Amino acid sequence: MVLSYAHLKSLDILSTRLDSFTELAAPYKKHFTASAVVIEQSHILLVHHKRIGAWLPPGGHVEEHELPHQTAVRETKEETGLSISILSAPVPETASANAFFLPEPLCIHAVKATEAKGVFYHIDLAYLCKLSQTLKDKDNSLPDLEFSDELHNASWVELSKLEKIPLAINVIELVAVAKSKLKLAD
Q: Which of 17, 136, 156, 172 has its Cα between 20 and 30 A from that of 112?
């Protein structure tokens, strides 16, 4: 592929923007988080987090004993009661327990977060996921949700109604990336 001048210019602009964001984030601690983007029947699974005060995909901090994709699965189960699995291109197998490949995230994004302990940047690995159970088992309706105490609510939100509810930063962009990956029309 030959890159045109316009391509090179847009890459240069993107690089400059990323450098600027990197400088803004530099003084803050970074926490790694993982989230699950689950889209079924033109609905997305979202949680309304008490501390954040907005709707976002289920997820949370990566614990010391787990890998990021495991965090997305665990947090979704804890926050909504649903079992999910990661959608990812097949990963190459290795013969080593010391060096291996992980499922590819849908994207990685950084979100500035103000918490009781200060201001941080959450470096979030957002995974495209699917329900582990099939909807055909239950008359094709979306499964009921059981939400945890740290949430106001959990819900299946129609994709067409996302802009009518208070969303956390980057949710609209996450949905756009997921819809593109799933080849869903707007």
A: 156
126 vs 6, 25, 55, 92, 151, CA distance in Å? 30, 19, 15, 21, 19
Domain 34-90+102-182 adopts which CATH fold? Nucleoside Triphosphate Pyrophosphohydrolase (3.90.79)
Distance between CA atoms of 57 and 127, rounded to whole angstroms?
10
> At residue 4, does pLDDT exceed 50?
yes
Find the helix or strand (DSSP H, E) in which 109 lies: strand 107-115
| Structure tokens given for 185 | 């029309």
Residue 175 vs residue 20, higher pLDDT: 175
Domain extent listing, the chain: 34-90+102-182
Amino acid at 57: P
Q: Quick check: 171 and 162 in contact, CB under 8 A?
A: yes
Secondary structure of 21-47 as H, E, C letters: HHHHHCCCEEEEEEEEEEEECCEEEEE
Q: Could you tell me the pTM of the whole model?
A: 0.84
The rounded distance, in Å, linking the Cα atoms of 126 and 11 is 23
Q: Kindly report, residue by residue over 99-143, the tens digit of the pLDDT.
A: 888 999 999 998 888 877 788 888 999 999 999 876 655 667 899
**Cα distance between residue 148 and residue 124, in whole Å:** 21
